[in-house]
Design goal:
Bound molecules: zinc ion
Oligomer: single chain
Number of strands: 20
CATH topology of the largest domain: PH-domain like
CATH class of the largest domain: Mainly Beta
Helix content: under 10%
Largest sheet: 7 strands, antiparallel
Radius of gyration: 27 Å
Number of domains: 3
Strand order of the largest sheet: 4-3-2-1-7-6-5
């Protein structure tokens, strides 16, 4: 998904017709927002609710001059045309998220939906689950994140500066024995990071590495982890004795 997408606003004296379950015909000085997913919201002076709307229509056409908007979704149609002076404008709208520092381009970085995105250059970095963006910057200038995967790791947002996979592999690759054969567990990326048996595919043993720190050995021989939801074995199916 691009960081910035076009949004349109229409402000002025408009005629709004809605055909569907509830038919409506309205005229007024309204503010209409057409969102990047084509949702159309018609606001008047009253309250916070739109006076008319169509959520994610399958078809949308919008001409600026003369103003003519048609949004169609199934048997519902929303039409807007100018009745008087109308201003139509296009806007770049971005993700909004918690500010987490500065991009290498100097632009602001925000955290949104498990990613960190730059509002200026559209750079986007995905974060592993449970990661916290920290103040310490990488040599490249980007912020780093901190995450627990058996130990606490700090990595640059940009994998090119050193991936979490490499850091966790350095710490734990072949550190634990497979409970189902005589192999050792390797650190691999399968979506998230897993500890998987080196004898795959003969042995398909594999465990997701929890968001927590290793705090000792389980009776079964695998490590135990301290996580926010309590202590557990690397094997989620292993019940403490
Ligand atoms: Zn940037
Ligand atoms: Zn870096
Ligand atoms: Zn195995
Ligand atoms: Zn266990």
């Amino acid at each position: 998904m691009p960081t910035r997408t076009q949004t349109h606003t229409i402000a002025g004296d408009c005629i709004v017709r809605f055909d569907g379950q509830r038919e409506r015909h309205q005229r007024g000085r309204v503010l209409i927002v057409v969102k990047p997913d084509d949702t159309v919201l018609v606001h008047d002076a009253d309250g916070y609710q739109p006076v008319a709307w169509l959520t994610r229509p399958t078809d949308l056409s919008l001409t600026h001059d003369p103003l003519w908007l048609v949004a169609v979704d199934g048997d519902e149609t929303l039409r807007v045309e100018a009745a008087g002076d109308v201003t139509v404008a296009d806007h770049d709208v971005s993700d909004a998220g918690v500010p987490v520092g500065d991009c290498r381009c100097g632009g602001p970085l925000v955290r949104s939906n498990g990613s960190v995105v730059c509002l200026d250059c559209d750079d986007r970095f995905s974060l592993p689950g449970g990661a916290t963006v920290i103040e310490d910057a990488c040599e490249c200038g980007l912020p780093q994140f901190r995450v627990e995967r058996g130990d606490t790791f700090e990595c640059c947002l940009d994998y090119d500066c050193g991936s979490l996979l490499d850091a966790v592999s350095d710490a734990f690759d072949r550190a634990w024995d497979c409970p189902n054969c005589d192999g050792e567990l390797e650190i691999l990326r399968r979506g998230g990071l897993i500890a998987g048996c080196e004898n795959y595919p003969e042995c398909d043993t594999g465990f997701g590495i929890p968001d927590g720190t290793a705090v000792g050995e389980c009776d079964c021989g695998l490590p135990r982890f301290e996580t926010t939801s309590g202590e557990r074995c690397l094997d989620t199916g292993c019940e403490p004795a």
